[in-house]
Amino acid sequence: MIGRTTSGDGHDYVPGHGDESFAVQAYDLELVYTPDGNRLEGVATLTCEALEESTTLTLDLAHLSVAKVSVDARAARYSHRLGRLEVTLPSPLDVGEVCTVRIKYGGKPKPLRMRHHGEAGWEELDNGVLVAAQPHGAPTWYPCNDRPSDKATYHVIVSVPNDYLVAFSGEETSRRRGGSATTWAFEQPVPIPPYLATLQVGPYTERAQDASVPMRLVAPTDAYGEGSEAAFGPQPEMLALYEEKFGPYPFASYTAVITDDDLEIPLESAGLSTFGRNFCSGDWEHRRLVAHELSHQWFGNAVTCRDWSGIWLHEGFACYAEWLWSEEIGERTADAWARHHHKRLSGLDQDDLVLSDPGPELMFDDRVYKRGALTVHALRLTVGDDTFFEILRTWVAEHAGGTVDTEMFLEHCERVAGQDVRPVLGPWLDELPLPDLPAA
Fold this sequence. Notes:
single chain, Immunoglobulin-like, Neutral Protease, domain 2, 8-stranded mixed beta sheet, 5-stranded antiparallel beta sheet
């Protein structure tokens, strides 16, 4: 067996991001965005707690300029280079002490490119903007402690021209229209990591869907129609299925944004998913991704991997949720999907990917998604349906708002199932060869 390795809070996966010496408890952002010229001006106030004795705090902020920094209302010295903002504290912090860091910044935001992951972050559209932050794009629009294990609450105020709508990963608390600009205010009381906070701005309209929680579509007016209804109309029924299988929806509402631009892949964030207009169709490849992104609200957004080596805990479960939805609507069963993808994977090389720690080059490889889902199905076949769904519901209930790793999941399975699942799951997670699926 190849033992799991510890990847150091994702630093091997996203090097040069995050500072483990402190945690952010809350982000308070005041933003003014001018689409004409793509100009962003911001003031970020961060409530920070020292996890180690500290004389400095290092934040992530890419492509934007810093004008002023203060700590507890006292001017602070800082240096800002290569996307890292190092703030010298006026006085050292002991473990557990809290300070307030205020940063005034601005500029022309743009995506951040990294070797293994391409571009992520702030992206101008033909008319508007989207933020696709996974895994390294959050610093392109606000200063943050960019690591998945650092979860915080958010208060965000955004001013944009009157003809634009703003969507954020949180609940709208007010909307105040002025002479030329509208100011939007949002709250996200559920702690989330920086990469799950998104901002979407465009000439959109919104439509409500009848679901167990507030649910809406946000899209250009002419994007609503037969195609969008085929893709997004079933979302309330998807939500009902997932609440039955996974437990209560973990956020206050859910929004699906449809941009006017085509997108290669959809983008998940807390309480909100983003799709291109090209996803407005009844094709299974589009419908399954609508189901996939919604399920991430439980697996990835509420319960988040502690470091990126555990990405299968997000993508494997979300891929499996696609199969559950297919089964629910009378199409191919989850077991049939599992055997279909097992056959396909068995024809691919398996000598470069360990599911429990795939490495930065392969963390978004499709084999992580499909082998992750097959691992979930192997668990289901081993413990039976009643125990399997009890494992999923209690996993979310116990860890919503927190971070987890693979070892924690194995221990949870064993506790709920009352049996040793490692002989079954270990080869899927830690060995290179593709195991056989248990009998149906």
